[in-house]
Amino acid sequence: MNAPLITLENIGFDYPTHPVLSNVNFTLNAGERVALLGENGAGKSTLLQIIVGLHKTTTGNIVAFGQPRQSETDFREVRAKAGLLFQDAEDQLFCPTVLEDVMFGPLNLGKDETEAKAIAEETLQSLGMAQYAQRITHKLSGGEKRMISLATVLAMQPEVLLMDEPTNGLDEKAEKRLLDHLETLPLAMIFVSHDRKLVERLSTRAVMIQDGTLVEGVMHSHPHVHTHSHMHIHAAGLDAGHEHDSNTPQHNHSHGETAVRD
């Protein structure tokens, strides 16, 4: 069996004013798409940033891509393999044009300008954003900046994708395009979202930060009165409301549903 891509062992983290995480254990395996849930302020964004070394833990160990990670040098390699989409697009975009922003990652990884440009253009095309290549980045709308931010991450061709509220600011059409694309990617993913539709469609399992620690989603079956195949998430930190077609014929069946127990 292949080794996990990322393992967190007894992770703790405190901000100067308050503790955030305590005794967090987590494993990400190849092909998994894990929804990271929890209330606002629970530490979800912090945990993603810990994985790539942007915060130094107070306790515990991180093993990523087969190696223990402690120093800044260790985490530089992690950041080359695990792309992080920040919650705020303004934290990700800093070049004058869209193409330059998307080229930056490949150039930083040692690609020459011709190859970096080809990767950037292909990435923008895959997200339906090719026409934005020469646009001035700071003049884009919030939703457009969100998609370009994702392009900057995907252009680095990561092995793991970490996303913090990836659908923030997207209209329905852009969100569908994003989800359609993410579903085709073979990458392992961890993503934070309060968007129930995104979580149920994209995730293969869910975990929740609760009182500073991580609680694994629990699969269970129960009679249900409609037919569908996607995952159900019933946990705090998700938008309320989950609707199904009332015209669907009623019949009972066992249905794998993910919940997080209190």
TrEMBL record:
Residues 240-262 are annotated as: Disordered. Keywords: ATP-binding, Nucleotide-binding, Transport. One of its GO terms (cellular component) is ATP-binding cassette (ABC) transporter complex. SUPFAM superfamilies: P-loop containing nucleoside triphosphate hydrolases. The keyword Nucleotide-binding applies. GO terms for molecular function: ATP binding; ATP hydrolysis activity; ATPase-coupled transmembrane transporter activity. Residues 6-236 form the ABC transporter domain. It holds the Pfam family ABC_tran. It comes from the Bacteria. Belongs to the ABC transporter superfamily. This is ABC transporter ATP-binding protein. It comes from Sedimenticola selenatireducens.
